[in-house]
Specification:
This is Helix-turn-helix domain-containing protein. By secondary structure, the chain is α+β, with helices and mostly antiparallel strands. The protein is 50% helix and 13% strand. A hairpin with a 5-residue loop joins strand 2 and strand 3 (40-43). The protein starts with a strand and ends with a helix.
Length: 60
Amino acid sequence: MALMTVDEVAAFLGVQGIRVERLARENLLVSVEQDEQGKPLFKQEDVERYKTLAERLGGL
């Protein structure tokens, strides 16, 4: 299970980090744990699945 930081997810999705944090707060992208600074960490598979779904629904 590969974990991705907020910055890595933002780069992968092509959005700003603040948007990734908002997606986590709204439970649209579920974090599995937090890093030392309290920022969420995400499973790579979940991020890829979210990107696929978002693209099908009309984009990020």
